[in-house]
């Protein structure tokens, strides 16, 4: 029999010896330093210095406060106060608009250093004066008001004020409504339970928060079968005035009342028992009860014929107007500044304040109107109408007025 070759057996033995040697580390490579085998981490980044801790407080302005005075009172150094004021003014902040009950938000570091002063003169405008290494820098923020046109309507039960407030609206709206019809309707004498009103008015919002009113676009008032409509129109001069739907101005030459809100205690009559002198005497005036100090307005443009004490009339203002009219305002507490004989006055200008001087039993205004030297009833007199719109302006207004009135009637039907 042939013998098997021995080379394969030797190779197998050699491989086994090499494997054992490797296991025992005889042929292991020299160990490398550990740092050479692991990745070297990047050096740590320098952390931002921590923001200094702060505290914030809010202060409410008092009557007579200036920004400098408030900041100084809070602990600002005089120079810092002046620097804040100067920076705000340079950024366009009108510090004359600071009012009592405005608030300032002041931020300080815990080291007691002022860091920021914030003031919002309106919901749509704010200023923040921030302390920096270079001095005080002002950041100004502005947003546009969200103007929405809404209908407001209601019925008078006890007073127009209560009716408006019952709708959740501001008394400011009452004042503006009364002003529109001040030459055609005396809300003091003529307002009745059951009167109805409706307005189409701009309301201005900051987000969802109501802020104030814009323009009343159209107003209607119905009383005792009589209806009044006033539509706003901006003419070429940019001024807004109110007209009836046919383009006749609602601003007459005379107001219906010299007081905005009050009540009549005695009307025009030729036979009234006199409360002081006794007997039955003519009362050729209208008496308006009002608290002492209530402003009295000139009912029309005119010239002052007399201003001062006048016997039983007490302190009096006597005005001359065009077309033969004169008016008297009696029993005043005092005259307004600048009211003296010969001076000119304008319609709605305050000429004095309600009092109880002369032959008077209590605070009230005795108001008289004369036409060509003869006293007439102020509540029944038909005064000179205002100027109407004409030409192309009239046509443009009538078209706009119809659209606005229809929109109001659809939104708030009577």
Question: What does the model show?
Answer:
This protein has 414 residues and is α+β, with helices and mostly antiparallel strands. The protein folds into three domains: 89 residues, Nuclear Transport Factor 2, Chain: A; 98 residues, Roll (Nuclear Transport Factor 2, Chain: A), CATH 3.10.450.350; 114 residues, Distorted Sandwich (Glucose Permease (Domain IIA)). The protein contains seven helices and 22 strands. It starts with 6 loop residues before the first helix and ends with a helix.
Short key terms for the protein model shown above:
414 residues; alpha+beta; Nuclear Transport Factor 2, Chain: A; Glucose Permease (Domain IIA); ten-stranded antiparallel beta sheet; disordered N terminus
């Amino acid at each position: 029999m042939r013998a098997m070759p021995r080379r394969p057996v030797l190779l197998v033995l050699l491989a086994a010896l090499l494997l054992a040697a490797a296991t025992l580390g005889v042929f292991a490579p020299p160990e490398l330093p550990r740092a050479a085998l692991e990745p070297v981490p990047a050096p740590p980044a320098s952390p931002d210095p921590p923001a200094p801790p702060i505290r914030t407080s809010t202060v409410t302005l008092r009557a007579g406060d200036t920004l400098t005075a408030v900041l100084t009172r809070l602990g600002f150094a005089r120079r810092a106060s002046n620097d804040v004021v100067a920076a705000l003014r340079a950024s366009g902040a009108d510090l004359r608009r600071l009012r009592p009950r405005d608030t300032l938000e002041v931020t300080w570091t815990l080291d007691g250093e002022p860091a920021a002063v914030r003031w919002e003169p309106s919901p749509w405008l704010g200023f923040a004066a921030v302390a920096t290494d270079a001095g005080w820098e002002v950041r100004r923020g502005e947003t546009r008001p969200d103007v929405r046109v809404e209908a407001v309507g209601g019925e008078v039960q006890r007073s127009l004020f209560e009716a408006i407030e019952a709708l959740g609206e501001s008394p400011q709206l009452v004042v503006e409504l009364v002003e529109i019809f001040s030459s055609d309707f005396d809300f003091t004498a003529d307002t009745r339970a059951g009167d109805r009103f409706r307005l189409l008015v701009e309301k201005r919002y900051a987000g969802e928060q109501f802020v104030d009113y814009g323009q009343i676009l159209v107003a209607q008032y119905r009383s005792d079968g009589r209806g009044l409509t006033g539509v706003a129109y901006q003419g070429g001069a940019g001024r807004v005035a109110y007209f009836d739907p046919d383009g006749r101005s609602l601003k007459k030459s005379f107001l219906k009342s010299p007081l905005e809100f009050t009540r009549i205690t005695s009307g025009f009559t030729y036979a009234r028992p006199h409360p002081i002198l006794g007997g039955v005497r003519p009362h050729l005036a209208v008496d308006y009860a009002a608290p002492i100090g209530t402003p009295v307005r000139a009912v029309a443009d005119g010239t002052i014929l007399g201003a001062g004490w006048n016997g039983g009339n007490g302190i009096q203002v006597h005005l001359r107007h065009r077309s033969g009219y004169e008016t008297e305002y009696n029993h005043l507490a005092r005259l307004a500044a600048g009211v003296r004989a010969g001076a000119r006055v304008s319609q709605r200008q305050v000429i004095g304040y309600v009092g109880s001087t002369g032959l008077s039993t209590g605070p009230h205004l005795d108001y008289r109107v004369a036409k060509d030297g003869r006293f007439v009833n102020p509540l029944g007199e038909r005064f000179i109408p205002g100027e109407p719109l004409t030409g192309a302006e009239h046509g443009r207004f009538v078209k706009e007025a119809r659209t606005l009135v229809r929109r109001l009637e659809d939104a708030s039907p009577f």
